[in-house]
Amino acid sequence: MFEFGGGLQELLVILVVALLVVGPKRLPEVGRTLARVLRELRRAESEFRSTLETNLHLNEADAAPARSRPGRAWAKTSYAWRYQ
């Protein structure tokens, strides 16, 4: 979902700012809550994506034409009829 580029310096700055804003006593609790929220977002994204792909595959199967007799269908869909 999100890609964080950067190194150790950026991570340290984020941790120091979080420590100053939240405080040392609540920092583990906030970290766990943030991890839980991110996990739920990933799970919801995965579920949405699988539902969307399933529905797209069902629609593709409905749109596919049904084949009748193989010989007759081949004659209609190929270029053989132009040369007869």
What attributes does this structure have?
84 residues; mainly alpha
Structural summary, described in words:
The structure is a single chain. The chain contains three helices and no strands. The chain is mostly helical and 84 residues long. It starts with 7 loop residues before the first helix and ends in a 7-residue tail after the last helix. It has a domain at 35-63.
* Overall mean confidence score, pLDDT: 78
Distance between the termini: 57 Å
| Shape descriptor | elongated
Helix-strand string? HHH
Computed Rg: 28 Å
Strand content: under 5%
Q: Which segments are poorly predicted (pLDDT under 50) over 5 or more consecutive residues?
A: none
| Largest β sheet strand count, sense and barrel closure | none
What is the β-strand count? 0
Write a brief caption for the model.
This protein has helices spanning 8-22, 27-63, 70-77. It is mainly α and 84 residues long.
